[in-house]
Amino acid sequence: MRKGLLLTILTGICFSAAAQNVTLTGKVSNAESDSILLQIPDNPFDARTHKTYAALNEKGEFRMTLQLEKPVLADLTNGEDGITLFLQPGDNLELKFSADNVVKTIKFKGQGEAENVYLREQEKKFEENEDYQVLPDNIYMREEQFSKFINAKKEDQEIFLQKYIAKSPLSEAFQKYAKAQIEFTWANDRLTFPDLREKIVFAEKRLTMTPAYFEFLKTLDLNNPAAFISPVYNDFAMNYLHYLATAGNFKKTDQDYFYQLFELAKNKLSGNALNLVQARIIFESCKTGHIGFTDRMLRDFNKSNSNPKFAKLINDTYEANKKFAIGSPAPDFVMTTVSGDTVSLQDFKGKLVYLSFWETNCGLCLMDMPYAQDLAKKMEGRDIVFVNIGMDKDEKAWRNMVTKKQLLGVHAFGKTASEDLKKLYELKENPSYFLIAEDGTFLNTKPKRPSSHGSTDEIAQSFGKAANTATALKK
C-alpha cells in the first residue's frame, strides 16, 4: 500500500470539457498518517467535502491529480495538522512540509506557488499578528477609534497585496479573490462590531452607532463572483441580512424569520450570489426553522435556482430534517399513567404540551425536577399540560419517586414502548424536552430546560404561536 500507490477518491468533482488537471506532488517529513488528504468543500456553508487521498511511499513522497473547473479553497492535511490552499485549473504544485507543523514548515514550488506563498505570508502578517485583531483589545474601542483601526488594517492589507503583485506573477483570478477577501473581511468586522462588543463588554450598554458608520454597506459589490468561495463572504452576507432584518423589526424568534431573510436577499442580491445565499438560508431553516415557511422557500428556490449542487444539498437536508422541523406533527403515542389511565398525545390537542423524557437515576433529570415543579405551578390555570415519560428499566423506582414526591403533571411509564419512543423521537439522551403547540405540531424540539434561565418566558410566549403562524402562511 505504501509503494507509491495512488489512493485517489474523487467523489463528485465535476468533470467537463472546461475542467483541467491539478497536480500536487511533494514530500512529508514526520508523517502522522500514511496518506495525504485534500478536502474541497461542496459550498462555503456546509461541512461536506469532496475528498482526495494520496498514499505516501517509504520516502514520504506523494502525488495526486484531480480535475477542477474553477478556483477553489482546499484543505490539505496529514494527520491532525494542515493548511488551506488556493487551487486553480492547470496548477502543478510541489509541496514540502513537516506534518507536526504544516503551516510553519511548508514550502511551495511550481505553478500555484506565488498564490499560496501570498496566502501564507498574508496570514502571518495579519491573522497571527495581535495588533490587527479585533479581539481581545480592540473590541473596547468606541465607534471613531474602531473605524480608524479597521480602515487602517484594510489599507495595510491592500498595500501588502499590491507590493506582492509587483514582485510576483499572481493570476488574475487570484488577485480578484484576494481583493474580495480583504473587502469582505473588513466589511464583516465593521458590521459585527456592535454585536460582538455587546457580548464581550458586559459592563456597558450596547453602543449606538451613528448612521454614517453603516454607510460602507452601500460601497460593496455583493454580487462579486470572486468572493463566492470565501467563507468570510458567506458569513458577511448572512450577517448583513440579519442586520437588515433587525432594522425591519424582525426577531430571530419569529416563526417566519428565515422567510424574511429569504425575501430580503432578493432585494440585495442577484444571479449566483442570490442562489448561494438563499441556499444557505433554506439550509439553516431546515434545521431550526418552521416547516411551513421552509416549504414555501424551497418551492420558490427550486423554480429559480441554476445550481444543481445547491438543489441536491437543500432538498436532501429538507428530507433529513422535516420530521422534527418546527410545524411538523409530533409523533403520537399511547401510554399508561401512574394512576392507571390510558392517555394519548392526541388527547391534549388544544393545549400546549411540554413533553419530557427522564429517568430516576439521571443526574440532570433530578436537578431539573424542582424547577419543573415550580414551572408547573406558575402555569396553573393556563392551557398547558406537562407530560413526563419515565424511561427507567425499574418501574418500581419510577413509581415510588412520582408518588412520594407528588410530582405535578401527567406521568407515564415508557418501559413497554421505550424502544419505539426512542425511534419516534430520536432520543439520544435523558432528559429530552419538546414543546408542542395546541395543534399537535412541534414548536421547539430543544426548548429551554426547566432549570434554564428564561424557560418560563419561553413558554409564556408560545401560547397561540401555531395559530399565528398558520395565519401568516395563508397570506
UniProtKB/TrEMBL annotation:
CDD domains xrefs: TlpA_like_family
Cellular localization per UniProt: Cell envelope
Annotated PROSITE patterns: THIOREDOXIN_2 (PS51352)
Residue numbers spanned by region Disordered: 446-475
Keywords (A to Z) from UniProt: Cytochrome c-type biogenesis, Disulfide bond, Redox-active center, Signal
N-terminal signal peptide: 1-19
Species: Adhaeribacter terreus
One Pfam family linked to the record: Redoxin
Main location: other
Domain Thioredoxin: 324-468
Protein name: TlpA family protein disulfide reductase
